[in-house]
Every structure is written in C-alpha cells, then in structure tokens.
Amino acid sequence: MGSQLLTGDLVLCKVGSFAPWPAVVFPQRFLRKDVYRRRRPDCVAVCFFNDETYYWDKPGRLRPLSQTLVDEFLERAATNTAEDPVLVEAYEEARNFKSLHEFLMQRLEEENRMQDWHENADKDTKVEAGEDPFEGRSTKSKTVRKSSEPEQAAIAPSSRSRSRVVASSDSGSATIGAPTTKSGPKSEPNVSNRRLARLDHAKRIEISLLLRRKLQTNLVQRNTPPGPDELKESRKLLAKIAENMASMPQFFDLDALRQSKLHKLLKVIANDENLEEFHGQCTEILEEWKDSISQLRKEKLKSQET
C-alpha cells in the first residue's frame, strides 16, 4: 500500500509473529499523547479493531482490507474452530465499520478522552475520512481555539493532559491500552527508591523457571499483541529480576540460568523490535550475567566435543 493511503482506510497490519490484524488508519491529531510522542516521520498510525492498542507502521507494510476480504475470512472462520476468537471478533468489527467519525468517537469515549475531541475538532463538525495520514497536530490551531474560551476552561484540560502524560510515561509503550485514570493503578516507584524484595534463594531454580514461563507467555508465545495487563506484569517481573541481581549468595547463579534458560528468553525479547520498551531492561540484565552466560557457552561447547 503506497502514498494513496488515507485516514479511515481499513488495513491489515502485521506485528511481529502475530497474525495480520484489521485496523483503521487513524488521524494523528486524535492520538493519545503517549502514542503521539512515538511518532515516526515515515510511518502512519493505525488503531486495531477489538484491541486497545495503536501501532506506527510504514504504508508499504500495510495491506488494504476490503469488505470482500473481511467476508472471506469470516466464512473460513465459521468452519475453522481453531481460529483465534479474538481475531474473528476483530474482523466482525471491521465488517460493521460504518465511518471514521463513529469509530473515533467510540474510541475516545472508551478511553475517557472526549476532551481531546473538543480540543482538536471544529465545533459541530464530523471527522471525515480521506485526510493525509502523515499530518500531525497543529499547536497553533489549538492555541487559537483555547484563547477564545474562558481562562478556567483553558487551564483544566492542561492539568488533565499532564496527568495522562505521566501515567503513559510510566508504561513506556506506544501500543498499550487506555491511559491510567485516577481510579486506576498508580505508577510504580523507581527500583532504586524502594526496599529490595529479596527472593528465596533456596527456591531460585523454581522461581527462575516461573519467571521465564510468565515472561514467555506474556510477551513471546502469543497469538495477539500483549495487552496492558501483560505489559504491566512483565515490567514488574523484569524489575524483580533486577532487584535481586546483587543478592548474596547469587540468586541467578549458573544452576538457575542453566535450568531455566532465562537468559535466552531475555535475548529473544531484546531482539524483538515490537518489544522495544523492554530492550533496555533486558540488555542491562544480560550485561550483568555476561560471565555466567560465557561459562554456560563454554560448557555447551565442551559437551559437544565429547
């Protein structure tokens, strides 16, 4: 799909090893702030059906999704019980897609972001499809609209926007679900500012195996992109690993890594471009484990020689 791509177009977006997923090319001015911050000049934003996430991708990687393709998929899925039911529902939502305006308004309501509509849309107008998908936000036009409103009305959205930015920066992902609200989970304090929660050294192998299974299920062995709950839990699990790196006796020792192969999973995560938010954590942990990993590599080579 090339330069003719426009907002409101239905497309199939391929993310990593996941199945191509139905999505809508989304107007950038209505993106959440945490998503917009990760804007790429050569990419457009898409919003997935039956999923809370957004994604930046190059137009050439997106496939047009016609109603014919939607109907054909749903016909096949009706006779294939192994098809992912979440993906099937996404196609059903794509089949029921009426207009970009209706889709956008529903998404803003679900994310409790109707204020964004008032800030970025002209009064009493509908958002029409067919706009340039590369067009970003216009701070100038937003300033003009705000200046015509009472001073108190202009201040309130600003404070709410800041609270959303703080919540999203804690999550650190452009493809997470709805932003955290006041009633939602609070941000975690930095590891360095809280007392380390030591794991039971006697159970280090069992715990290492458990950590691997949970991270693998949350981030790697999936038919759909990880959701907000999986991303949040994975951050906590990696933080738990980091907290126990300096424990004495060593928690993640040769036996723990040899049996759990946790280091191999972290390498997979660190090399997956769709899990970029975890690259830093995984790389730091692997750097700390480099001597043990080197020793395990030598053991493997030696066993192959005998």
TrEMBL record:
Example GO biological process: positive regulation of transcription elongation by RNA polymerase II
Region (Disordered): 118-194
PWWP domain span: 7-68
Gene3D superfamilies on file: 2.30.30.140
Biased amino acid composition, Basic and acidic residues: 118-138
Domain of life: Eukaryota
Low complexity composition-biased segments: 153-174
Residue spans of biased composition, Polar residues class: 178-193
GO annotation, cellular component aspect: cytosol; NuA3b histone acetyltransferase complex; nucleus
InterPro entries named in the record: IOC4-like_PWWP, PWWP_dom
A GO term for molecular function: RNA polymerase II complex binding
A Pfam cross-reference name: PWWP
CDD domains xref list: PWWP_ScIOC4-like
Protein name stated in the entry: LALA0S13e00584g1_1
Record organism: Lachancea lanzarotensis
